[in-house]
């Protein structure tokens, strides 16, 4: 991982709208921006030492950009963006199934990267890479279809139209719903980040498993209400806008909690 670190800046600009990325550019930046507003003083200082003066939002999409890297160095990270699971309606069963899964996933890697950051033996460069991935992956976690079903690749194989254009369910939730609102990421972060300290605390309770289950339950609701060949437009936005905005806010606040606990 270390040797290609120098490519990071170049790759950071290689965004492509051709691919179906979690939350799209704006969603990930909103989450990072909200998180940045809720960092403790200590976390802020430590993160600045690691990242320099760039805001979290600057790096929020980098783990998606490197999917376009052709050297194969980052190939192993492609499965870090999601965890697929059969529909569950009971937390205990969900948790058991989650823990029984073999191989790296969004779930295992958030834990692995967190311990890498805590480990003093980890090099500065690898700590920075781990942090950038965490910023991104806590966003993925809050996109419900990243805790969706394997059979349809988290909604990628559910065909829909969105205002007449061919699309799929995953892609609608990645970017289209967010982008339909036509706010910049800073505007949107500001509009959503209005909870009281008490409410913020409440949203930040729970652990990684709880947060994944939270997304999974919403994914089940999305699946139930968006069958294959659905024609989505204003009524779908109307139905799910609150949910989409809740997920952006919760993603940001929970990312902040994770980082505050780490540092
Ligand atoms: Zn992702």
From TrEMBL:
It comes from Chryseobacterium gambrini. Keywords: Disulfide bond, Endonuclease, Glycoprotein, Hydrolase, Metal-binding, Nuclease, Signal. It comes from the Bacteria. InterPro entries: PLipase_C/P1_nuclease_dom_sf, S1/P1nuclease. Residues 1-22 form the signal peptide. The keyword Disulfide bond applies. The keyword Disulfide bond applies. This is S1/P1 nuclease.
